[in-house]
Amino acid sequence: MLRVDFNLVLTMINLVVLFLILRKFLFRPVMDIMEKREAMIADGLKNAETSQTEALELKNQYEAKLQGAKEESSQMIERAKQEAKAEYDRIVNDAGTEAKKLMQSARDTMDMEREQALRDMKSQVASLAVDAARKALLDSGHGADDQSVYDQFLKEAGDPHGRTEE
């Protein structure tokens, strides 16, 4: 049968005491350290996942804002082009209107100057005709002098046909 020896009992007691001592001073602290490390790693992974989620959200917000900014800048450029075209058209229309006014003013001035020149010429012709008639009346009776009076008149008035004295 089985014989229990006192040494065997002491060895078993030593093993149980050793196990309890190791469990108290070695296994528990090691297990606590391992649990703490496991918790720390789990927190690190959770924080990394949270950070990654936040980064993706920020990236999506940034891309949305960037797209909005692109659309806004496109609208601003289009609006600026439309305003520039409207300003260009207004300036061209104003310039055309001003040019028409200047042309009409120049025509009016030219017409007035032509009319004034015609009046001056009529006045001079009338004055010359009166002078010629006066001379003709004073010298009436002298046929040769009539030709000289006529030549003198043409000399002073200017011959419109380009005749010169013969």
UniProtKB/TrEMBL annotation:
It comes from Mordavella massiliensis. Keywords: ATP synthesis, Cell membrane, CF(0), Coiled coil, Hydrogen ion transport, Ion transport, Membrane, Transmembrane, Transmembrane helix, Transport. InterPro entries: ATP_synth_B-like_membr_sf, ATP_synth_b/b'su_bac/chlpt, ATP_synth_F0_bsu_bac, ATP_synthase_B_chain. The chain crosses the membrane at residues 6-27. F(1)F(0) ATP synthase produces ATP from ADP in the presence of a proton or sodium gradient. F-type ATPases consist of two structural domains, F(1) containing the extramembraneous catalytic core and F(0) containing the membrane proton channel, linked together by a central stalk and a peripheral stalk. During catalysis, ATP synthesis in the catalytic domain of F(1) is coupled via a rotary mechanism of the central stalk subunits to proton translocation. Signal peptide: none annotated. The gene is atpF. It is found in: Cell membrane; Endomembrane system. The keyword Protease does not apply. F-type ATPases have 2 components, F(1) - the catalytic core - and F(0) - the membrane proton channel. F(1) has five subunits: alpha(3), beta(3), gamma(1), delta(1), epsilon(1). F(0) has three main subunits: a(1), b(2) and c(10-14). The alpha and beta chains form an alternating ring which encloses part of the gamma chain. F(1) is attached to F(0) by a central stalk formed by the gamma and epsilon chains, while a peripheral stalk is formed by the delta and b chains. Residues 153-166 have a biased composition (Basic and acidic residues). It comes from the Bacteria. Residues 141-166 are annotated as: Disordered. This is ATP synthase subunit b. GO terms for cellular component: endomembrane system; plasma membrane; proton-transporting ATP synthase complex. GO terms for molecular function: proton-transporting ATP synthase activity, rotational mechanism; proton-transporting ATPase activity, rotational mechanism. Residues 45-90 form a coiled coil. NCBIfam families: ATP_synt_b. Belongs to the ATPase B chain family. It is a single-pass membrane protein.
